[in-house]
Design goal:
Inosine-uridine Nucleoside N-ribohydrolase, Chain A; nine-stranded mixed sheet; two-stranded antiparallel sheet; 13 helices; 11 strands
Length: 329
């Protein structure tokens, strides 16, 4: 059972592909979330496509009140590598949607993040920042505006994995795309005592939506439900199956229903130099009794609430009910 709660102030940092769009729909529609801002970064698609897709989704849910900041167009060090083979040539299912009527905020993503975080802290409502993308924007914030970074209420990111990978045999895409950024963010969270949760690939695939549920969304008739149906059915077709994960949307749903996800606080590092393992999130699950003194690396400074298991049907149901306009209270 989901307990009623005050709206949680959130900022989403996105590289809007299909599952980011599913997450934006949830954050824009659910009354339990107060979506204060969205910032964009290159990742699933080039930055211009990400910005267009983000503005399009917010337009579909009539959230012109949410400012959208344009951020980094490439990783800190690496050349950009997109995931259009997963998300379509436009990054969002090649639906042929009309161009957005909304426009980005005049502030950069960095300034928008700083301003939104500072406003939340000043009002006594610290903002939860939810990176659903490579964490380049957050790393830049940590370096350029460390005081503002330290005022974040919580970072809940989609990325990494304790046991599962996808971009390479060792690394998940968001972290692989900019491993230095992920490492900087984890270090900054440790230095500033910002709580951090990792919603990684170990739970990413758990919330699935079936063809039958897509049909029910189409029958609902609302713009949001129609867009949600088109997004999920794209992955049904692309991967030739009857179920598709809502992916990044699970990281947003976790804020609304934390009991749906089992986490364990563990030390986490990001591998930056390994030939075959660059971008891996090294999640330390050892029993430290008697072993730490003999480990030349010591304990990782970043202690992270790592999601290890999730009730996929429960998360998918929350998302579906929100798309139908009947979000749980």
């Amino acid at each position: 059972m989901i307990v009623a709660m005050a709206s949680i102030p959130v900022v989403l940092d996105v590289d809007t592909g299909v599952d980011d769009a599913c997450a934006l729909l949830l954050a824009g529609l659910h009354p339990g979330l107060d979506l204060r801002a969205v910032t964009c970064v290159a990742g699933n698609a080039p930055l211009s496509d990400v910005v267009r897709n983000t503005l399009t989704v917010l337009g579909w849910v009539e959230r012109a009140d949410v400012p959208v900041g344009v951020g980094a167009g490439r990783p800190l060090l690496e050349d950009p590598v997109d995931a259009r083979h997963v998300h379509g040539s436009d990054g969002m299912a090649d639906l042929g949607l009309a161009p957005p009527t909304l426009s980005p905020d005049p502030r950069s993503a960095l300034d928008l993040l700083r301003d939104t975080i500072d406003e939340g802290a000043a009002s006594g409502e610290p903002v939860t920042v939810v990176p659903l993308a490579p964490m380049t924007n957050l790393a830049l914030l940590a370096r350029v505006h460390p005081e503002a970074f330290g005022r974040i209420g919580r970072v809940a990111f989609m990325g990494g994995g304790a046991h599962v990978s996808n971009a390479t045999a060792a690394a998940e895409f968001n972290v692989f795309h900019d491993p230095e950024a992920a490492a900087i963010v984890l270090d900054a969270c440790a230095v500033s005592d910002v709580p951090v949760t990792m919603y990684g690939l170990d739970v990413f695939y758990a919330p699935m939506v079936t063809d039958a549920q897509v049909g029910a969304l189409r029958a609902g008739g609302s713009p949001a439900a129609s867009l949600a149906a088109d997004l999920v059915s794209f992955h049904h077709r692309r991967f030739a199956n009857d179920g598709a994960t809502i992916g990044d949307a699970g990281a947003v749903a976790m804020l609304l229903d934390p009991d749906a996800v089992h986490t364990q606080r563990l030390p986490v590092r990001v591998e930056l130099t390994g030939t075959w393992t660059r971008g891996r999130t090294v999640v330390d699950r050892r029993d430290w009794s008697g072993g730490l003194a003999h480990d030349p690396h010591g304990l990782a400074p970043a202690m992270v609430d790592v999601a290890l298991d999730a009730d996929g049907p429960r998360i998918a149901d929350l998302w579906l009910r929100t798309m139908h306009g009947g979000a749980p209270s």
